[in-house]
C-alpha cells in the first residue's frame, strides 16, 4: 500500500469471509480510536413510493439494537467515552462513524456492529424518528442550497434515480393501509444492507492484529446476501435536457451563473486525473486568467471550475461564477468568454510541463501531509475503499500517474454548448414552474440557435492568457535541523513599544511548513460600528486586490488570510515556509501601494451588504447566535447594526481612515514552524518597516464584554422570517479562572446527550436541539438551544426549565464509575494532542491572545476537572442554572407557524441595546 514517507501509521487491507472490505490503521499516537462503516446504498435505492427511506433507516439504526435496546444509549456511551459520532446518507452511500477513548473501543465496536446485524426498529422509536426526519426536512425548506438542488433534480432525466427526494417527510414515510413503514423499513434493510456492499475502517493505537480481531469479531457475522450493486441503466441527462437555460429564484439575494457539462463517469481515470488538469487551467485566478478578465469588466466576483455532482454512471463538470448586478445584461458575453478560454486550452494549453507542475504540488502535499483527527481520517478512507484499488487507498487522492493528452482532449470535447445546461440563479426573473418539496420558482427554456452559433465560434480574446510557470513552488524541502531549545514553549524574543515578536521552532511534526500570525490592534479600527465596518471593508478590498498576484502561492501549497476582529485585523500565512517571505513581501507591497478603486468599492460594498442581508434569511437559531454575540460584544456588532453603518459609507472616507488607523498601532507577531530565530527576526524587520513602527505607545485594543452579573433573567426577541420558532439560553461565568472553565465545560459535556435525547428524541420538539460551550472574551459560557417547527418560545422555555430543574437528579443517579467515566471522557478530549502543525500554531496563538504566557492553561483546566466532585456540579446547577434564580440571557424568536400562540413572558426585556451595553468592561 503506497503511503507517504512522512506517515508513521501502519496499514492492513483485508476482505472478511462475508466479503466486507476492511482497512486497519495502527496509529501508535492516536488519542482516540475510530471506526467508519459505509454501505453502498443511498437515496438512489429508495423505492419510488418511499422516498427518503435510506435516510430514515440511517436515523433508525442509532435507536436501539437487540443487545443494547435502550433508545439513546449509544450516544450516552459515546459521550461518556470522550468521543463523538455521526452518519450521513448520500446518493449511493450511507456512512456511519464514531470515535472514543481507546480503552472503550472494544465495547464501542460491539455496540456499533449491532447496527448492521440486529437493530430493533421498535415501533415507538419509528414513529418519533419519522417526526425528526420531517423536522430535518422542514428546517431546510428555506435553505437555498436545498431549493436549488431540487430544481437540479427536476430538470435532469426523470428516469434517473438522482431525481428522487432524498430526505423524506411525514407523507413519504407514513403508515399506509396495506403496510406500515416499519415493515417496509425492515424489508429495505434486509434487502440492501449486505456485507458485500460494505466497507469499514478501524483506526487506533491498538496493534494491527488486535484491530483485525475486532473486525472479525464484530463484522464477520453481518449477513452477505450476495446482491450485486445494480448498475444505473439511464444517463443523468438525456438529449432533451441538454442545451437548456434554467433560471431559479433564490430566497437570499444571490446571483450565480453555472455552466454544467455532463460526462460519463471518470472514476477509472483517478490515477491520471484529467479533469483536475482542465479545472486547474479553467479555474486559474492569476494574471490573464478567465476570472481576471471577467472581474476587470466588473461582471463577476468569483469563479470556480471543476465542481458538480458525480455518481457511478455520471460526472458533471461545472464552471460557477458569482455575478455582479450589472452582469445580468452580459450573460451571453460571459458564456462566450468561458468558451474562448476552453478553446485556448484546447489549442495551446496541453503541455506536459503543466501536468508535471500540478503533479509536483500534489506530491509535496502527499509527502508532507499532516495528521487529521481519527474521525476525519476513517471517514475519508472508508470512501476510498469503494473508489480506488487497495494499493491506492491512501495515495489515490494525490496521484497523477501520467500525462495523457488524448484523454484530456477527449474530455475537453464534452465541454461544448450543445452539451451544456446553463443555470442562472437571481431574484426577479420570470418563472413558470414551482419545484416540489421546496417550492422554488424556476423556468426552463431551450438555448437559442443564435446563442449556440455564437458559443460554437466564440472567437479569440487577446486579454486571455494561460498561466506562466509558478515561481512559488518550493524546492528546499528538508526541515532545518533542530536547535537545542526547540522543545521549549514559544518565547518572546522582541518586546518593543508597540511591537512584540513571539517565536518557536517546531520540534515534533518535522515538516517544511510554517505559520505566521500578525495581529494589528488599533483602537481607531473598532471604536464605533462605522469604523468596524470600514475596517472590514478595507480588509475585503485588500484581499480582492491581492488575489491575482497571490494565487500562484496558493496553488503551490501556501495560504494567507486577513480578517477583522474585536481589536483590529490579523494577517495569517501558512503552508510551505521556504517561499513565505516572498509572499509576505508581495502582500505588504500591495498594501503599501493600496488604491481604493470606486468600481471595486461599489462591488465589494454590494457583496458585503448582500451577505449581511442574506444572514436575515439564515435559520432562526443562527440568527439568535449572531444577535447574542452582537449584544454581549460591542466590538462585534450584529448584522442589522453592520448593515446600517455600511449603507451610507462612501469610498472617499477610506484613505483617511486607514491613515488614522495605522497612526496608532500595536502589533503582536508569532512565527512558528520550520523557521530559525534569525529568519523570524528578519520577518519582524520587514513588518516594522511596512507599518512604520517606531516607539509607539499604544497598547492592545480593549475587547469589551457585557457582564450579566446579578441581572436575573434578561430576554431579547429577534424577528426571524421563518415558520420555526427558536430559543437560546446563555449563562455566563463572572470569572475566567481555570476552575470556572472546568465547571462550565463539564456542565455542557454532562448535559449534551441527555438534553438531546429528552427534548429532541423523546419530546420531538425539533431537529436542532443541543447545548454548547461558548466562551466569549475568555469568559466561559453555557448555552441551551432549540429550533422548533412544533412549539413557540413560551413552550420551549418551559421545556428547558423543566430539564434544568430535573438535571441535578440525573447527576445524583449516576454511579461512581459513570461519573468518573464522564469526567475522564472530557479530560481525554481537552488533553488530546494537536494533530498537526496548524492546529498547534492556533492553540499557541490563542494562548498568546489569552495572556497564557506559560502555555499551560489546558493543564490547569484538566487539574481542576480532576478535582471537581459531583457535589460541586450539583451546587453549580442549583446556584447558577436553576431557572428561578439564574442570571441568564434568553434570546428567542417566534415563528410564523406560532404567531397565534402566547408570547414568551420571562424576566426583564432588553429594550435598549445601548443601555444594556453600558455594562461592557
Automatic annotation (TrEMBL):
Alphabetic keyword roster: Hydrolase, Metal-binding, Metalloprotease, Protease, Zinc
EC class (word): hydrolase
Record keyword Metal-binding present: yes
Domain Peptidase M16 N-terminal residue range list: 21-151
Cellular-component GO terms for this entry: cytoplasm
Record domain Coenzyme PQQ synthesis protein F-like C-terminal lobe: where: 746-845
Domain Peptidase M16 C-terminal: 182-361
Biological process according to GO: proteolysis
GO molecular function, one term: metalloendopeptidase activity
Domain Peptidase M16 middle/third intervals: 366-643
InterPro entries linked to this entry: Metalloenz_LuxS/M16, Pept_M16_N, Pept_M16_Zn_BS, Peptidase_M16, Peptidase_M16_C, Peptidase_M16_M, PqqF-like_C_4
SUPFAM superfamilies assigned to the protein according to its UniProt record, in alphabetical order: LuxS/MPP-like metallohydrolase
UniProt cofactor(s): Zn(2+)
EC number: 3.4.24.55
Cross-referenced PANTHER family: INSULIN-DEGRADING ENZYME-RELATED, NARDILYSIN
Similarity-based family: Belongs to the peptidase M16 family.
Biological function: Endopeptidase that degrades small peptides of less than 7 kDa, such as glucagon and insulin.
Protein's UniProt name: Protease 3
Organism field: Photobacterium marinum
